[in-house]
Design goal:
This protein has helices spanning 11-21, 51-56, 96-112, 130-141, and strands at 8-9, 28-33, 39-46, 64-73, 80-89, 118-122. Helix content is 32%, strand content 28%. A hairpin with a 5-residue loop joins β2 and β3. It has a six-stranded mixed beta sheet with strand order 1-3-2-4-5-6, sandwiched between helices. The chain is built from four helices and six strands, in the order βαββαββαβα. Its main location: cytoplasm. Residues 6-138 form the ADF-H domain. GO terms for molecular function: actin binding.
């Protein structure tokens, strides 16, 4: 699957996603572009449960994509829920070229990942803070 920018999604990117979604093998996956900027590849997978350790993996000056298995409890005795959240991390300080390639390649990855519930666009850490994501995820959950 290719994006408008001609960037393809590596098979391993889909395999890792399915391992997270179906196998609950990972808590999060960080994706990036390969050296030649032709393919979206897995840069890291983690079983680390702490949300802060996920945030620490997002670089201050470069773009990434990420998928996070976000667990939350909305109260009302409904117990924990889990949503798969897709992140496009594009900090203001990232190089323009990098921001352009990531922006134009996002759709190929996003379309390839079936089962994502929410999408977060982050340009600084306040937009990807736990509470910001929780608010967006619980809003998209809606009430039955």
């Amino acid at each position: 699957m290719q994006s408008r920018s001609g960037v393809a999604v590596a098979d391993e990117s889909l395999t890792a996603f399915n391992d997270l979604k179906l196998g609950k093998k990972y808590k999060f996956i960080i994706y990036g572009l390969n050296e030649s900027k032709t393919e979206i590849v897995v840069q890291e997978t983690s079983t680390e449960q702490d949300y802060d350790s996920f945030l620490q993996r997002l670089p201050e000056n470069d773009c990434k994509y990420a998928v996070y298995d976000f667990e939350y409890d909305i109260g009302r005795g409904e117990g924990k829920r889990s949503k798969i959240v897709f992140f496009t991390w594009s900090p203001d300080t990232a190089p323009i070229r990098s921001k352009m390639v990531y922006a134009s390649s996002k759709d190929a990855l996003r379309r390839a990942l079936n089962g994502v519930s929410s999408e977060i666009q982050g340009t600084d850490f306040s937009e990807v803070a736990y509470d910001s994501v929780l608010e967006k995820v619980s809003r998209s959950a809606g009430s039955h």
